[in-house]
From TrEMBL:
GO terms for cellular component: chromosome, telomeric region; cytoplasm; nucleus. It comes from Penicillium canariense. Catalytic component of the histone acetylase B (HAT-B) complex. Acetylates 'Lys-12' of histone H4 which is required for telomeric silencing. Has intrinsic substrate specificity that modifies lysine in recognition sequence GXGKXG. Involved in DNA double-strand break repair. InterPro entries: Acyl_CoA_acyltransferase, Hat1_N, Hat1_N_sf, Hist_AcTrfase_B-typ_cat-su. It is an enzyme of class 2 (transferase). This is Histone acetyltransferase type B catalytic subunit. It comes from the Eukaryota.
């Protein structure tokens, strides 16, 4: 134990990632940061044994990401029987390209005297430019079938293991027809070159996306055996109706919370909307911070459309309030304009569950804060009065909870039906409360980004930003669980 304590160190602390560019006489550091994860490389404990004062420096050239690994330490444990220091190069080799293992002076010379750097442009095509904090940025996109895209992606991919939990690098040596399904987006800052021969591009982040075919059965056609020519004409995957899926999405830590992720996501979304063969945008296993980014971006996109199309909850569905009837089911089509909403969802190409979340957020935002949980709404009274509450905003809030519960129930029906009735009611109640708390956080985050509300319109809530708590887990494609502690922030 004592031996391990003396000679062990935290792998995340030992690994330093450094972005470099040419300096006056040798490369200089632009930014340095630590990884979020090293378990794929050094094991679940993220510990390295056998070194004192260990620094593993992983360098990237700012423009073309030319990589380099340099290892230094003060002392190394001398092997005793079968106890030996971690084989650092052996652990790193599967994750870094061979070119990263040259000696440091050669690497520094290659970066300092790179004769191609001055004319470097990111691979693919320039698709979007923007300014932030008086600095200029560009987003470039190219197919993975392009060798220049593959070269930069191969260099960048170690970052996937270091920053995306359960993320795995892409195989870039697949056959061309499958590489063509992938588009890689790069975000670069346009910088003043530090030397006359240096590049004016500096990496900020990147994302990979792929198309996958969407099976759509035309029910107006009765299947029949056809006498078509054989072999059939070549099918181009890029022309078939598809979903677009974001696979890896990464902004370097030195650029976090400056809106780059939002620009990148919005650019990918805009490309889906512009492409008639793409039916909707989906995301592969998003984490909590990506969900926060996606929710804020989608809310800002859809909110003006909801306002323009006058989407709101009808507080008196089917005249139920006036007739004081007890309804046996949630009258969805009377509460919300389902046709208008279907039209908005398909034209904005947003996946159904994500659209439901954004719609629920919007409908919640239309109820004045004092009639919502966050503003101290009297839930006990609401549960007695239900749809017969006197105030239309109380009725709206009642129906908002019912609609949200209905969606949650449908989605988690099998799991919920395993519970006793009282437990089921309690679980749904907890879940809808957690969902609402999560929505309030997003509404709070988008406050400054949307036009100011009219005087009589409800304002977005204020309050501290806290972590979202959930009772039911959600994932677009995978089996879902009812649980207390979940990775996904919403249901
Ligand atoms: C499909 C996948 O790859 S899932 C994995 C996603 N990638 C990673 O987790 C890798 C490491 N992390 C990152 O690359 C970045 O933190 C990202 C991509 C998640 C976010 O990128 P950023 O450029 O920082 O996002 P951006 O500045 O546009 O944030 C927009 C909004 O999203 C929300 N948001 C972004 N990051 C976070 C976070 N860590 N926690 C909570 N909310 C967040 C905030 O509301 C933010 O607005 P605000 O800063 O005005 O409050």
């Amino acid at each position: 134990m004592a031996l391990e304590d003396d000679w062990s160190c935290d792998a995340n602390d030992a690994l330093h990632i450094t972005v470099v560019q040419p300096g006056e006489t040798k490369p200089k550091t632009l930014s340095t940061f630590h990884p979020q994860f090293t378990y794929p490389i050094f094991g679940d404990e993220e510990q390295i044994f056998g070194y004192k004062g260990l620094i593993i420096r992983l360098r990237f050239a700012a423009h073309d990401l030319r990589p380099h690994v340099h290892i230094s330490y003060d002392d190394r444990f001398k092997a005793v029987a079968d106890t030996a220091a971690t084989d650092l190069l052996g652990s790193l080799k599967p994750f870094v390209p061979e070119e990263a293992l040259i000696n440091l002076p050669d690497y520094e010379n290659a970066v300092q005297d790179d004769s191609n750097a001055k004319d470097f442009t990111p691979p693919g095509k320039l698709v979007y430019s923007y300014e932030a904090n008086e600095r200029s940025y560009e987003i470039w996109a190219g197919s993975l079938a392009d060798p220049d895209v593959r070269r930069i992606l191969d260099r960048a991919q170690i970052l996937v293991s270091l920053f995306i939990e359960a993320g795995t690098p892409l195989a870039t040596d697949d056959p061309e027809w499958t590489l063509e399904r992938w588009t890689v987006y790069f975000v670069y800052e346009k910088v003043t070159p530090p030397t006359p021969t240096a590049s004016s591009y500096s990496i900020v982040g990147y994302a990979t996306t792929y198309r996958y075919w969407l099976y759509q059965r035309d029910r107006t056609i009765t299947p029949a055996v056809k006498d078509d020519a054989f072999p059939p004409p070549e099918i181009k995957l890029s022309e078939l109706p598809s979903r677009l899926r974001i696979a890896q999405f990464l902004i370097l830590p030195s650029h976090h919370r400056s809106g780059h992720g939002t620009h990148l996501y919005t650019t990918i979304h805009a490309s889906c909307i512009a492409d008639p063969t793409i039916v909707e945008l989906t995301v592969e296993d998003p984490n909590e911070s990506f969900d926060a980014l996606r929710d804020t971006a989608d809310f800002c996109l859809l909110q003006p459309e909801f306002v323009k199309r006058k989407v709101n909850l009808n507080p008196d569905p089917n005249g139920a309030y006036s007739r004081k009837q007890r309804l046996s089911s949630v009258p969805t089509a009377e509460l919300i304009p389902t046709d208008v909403l279907r039209d908005i969802r398909t034209s904005f190409k947003i996946e159904a569950t994500q659209f439901a979340h954004i719609l629920e957020m919007f409908l919640l935002s239309q109820i004045p804060p004092s009639h919502r949980l966050a503003g101290g709404a009297n839930i006990a009274r609401l549960l007695i009065k239900k749809a017969k509450a006197d105030d239309p905003d109380d009725r709206r809030y009642y129906w908002w909870r019912m609609l949200t519960k209905q969606r949650l129930f449908k989605k988690h029906k099998e799991l919920l039906q395993e519970l006793e009735l009282l437990d089921r009611v309690e679980k749904l109640d907890d879940t809808v409360r957690n969902v609402e708390e999560g929505y309030e956080i997003t509404l709070n985050a988008v406050k400054g980004r949307l036009p100011e509300p009219e005087d009589d319109a409800p304002a977005a809530p204020t309050g501290p930003r806290n972590k979202r708590k959930l009772a039911v887990e959600d994932d677009e494609d995978e089996e879902e669980n009812v649980s207390e502690a979940v990775k996904r922030p919403k249901v």
